Amino acid sequence: MGTSHRKVRERRARRQALQAAAVSVFAEKGFSRATIEDIARQAEVSVGTIYLYYRSKEDLYVSLLFESMERMREAIEKIMASGLAPDRQLKRVWDYFHAYHARFPQSYRVLVFLQQPGLTAGISPKTLQEINVRAARNFSLVSHIVAAAIDKGIYRPHEPREIVDLLWSLFLGLVHLSETRANLGVRISRLEDLHRKAFAWFEEGLRAASRGRAASSATTARVTPPAPPRMPPRARARPRAPRPRR
After folding, report:
1. Which among 87, 89, 208, 228 is least surrounded, fewest beta carbons within 10 Å?
2. How far apart are alpha carbons 14 and 50 in whole angstroms?
3. Rounded-to-integer distance, Cα 119 and Cα 58, Å
4. How far is residue 39's CA from residue 87's CA, in Å, rounded to a whole number?
5. How much of the chain, in percent, has pLDDT values that exceed 70?
């Protein structure tokens, strides 16, 4: 029994080492230019060893992608089961994006690789469909959170999926900006600070309907000059008594 468990652990460790090597090579060369030989060299194993675990570099990538998507799904479902108000749940999801990037940078890069040209050329249509299904499922989970906030009147009416698309795009953009500045040696602001401020500004727009009207009313009341006070009517002069004749 002990030997069996040890073999399972060793196989899992070898698989993780191959995945880590693949992510490093994909990041350096791009998916289309990377080869199994490059990955084997990075992992310090033979090419044959890789084929014991994966049929191709596309198969290796898909295994990485599915693991990343599954990890994110589990985190989102845990947040949804927390019992928090939906707007607090959305904040937790946003915070998880940052924590995910910080804790699993390789897994994050796997998700970003989807935008690389030529990535899907060697992936079967069936696998591509499964990728779309899994990605849509995660987006749908967060959309349910947004929809609940709209139903409760916390956020103003919008298409929930569009809000989630914008939120994820905002995070991708912040990471891209941060990494670009780091490569150039520019130290302006930390990703953590940008991440915190971005959500506050983003959510301000979602909540703007009720607060906007209140602010507008307050502004109107503040700038409208008060009506001039009404002056009391002048008292009529008493008629003079007639002088007596001498």
Report:
1. 228
2. 9
3. 8
4. 43
5. 83
User: Smallest Cα–Cα separation from 68: which of 123, 22, 120, 34?
Assistant: 22
How far apart CA 19 and CA 107 sit, in angstroms, is 10
Cβ–Cβ < 8 Å for 106, 60: no
Instruction: Tell me the domains of the chain and their CATH numbers.
Output: 10-54 (1.10.10.60), 62-216 (1.10.357.10)
**How far is CA 70 from each of CA 8, 131, 152, rounded to the nearest angstrom?**
21, 11, 29
Asked if residue 155 lies in contact with residue 146, where contact means CB atoms within 8 angstroms, the answer is: yes
pLDDT tens track for 83-127: 999 999 999 999 999 999 988 887 788 888 787 777 777 788 898
| Residue pair 128/120 in contact by the 8 Å Cβ criterion | yes
**Which region, left, alpha or beta, applies to residue 104 given φ > 0 means left and ψ of -120 to 50 means alpha?**
beta
pLDDT score of 208 more than 90: no
Alpha helices in the chain (DSSP H): 2-29, 36-43, 47-51, 57-80, 86-103, 105-112, 125-151, 160-183, 191-206, 208-223
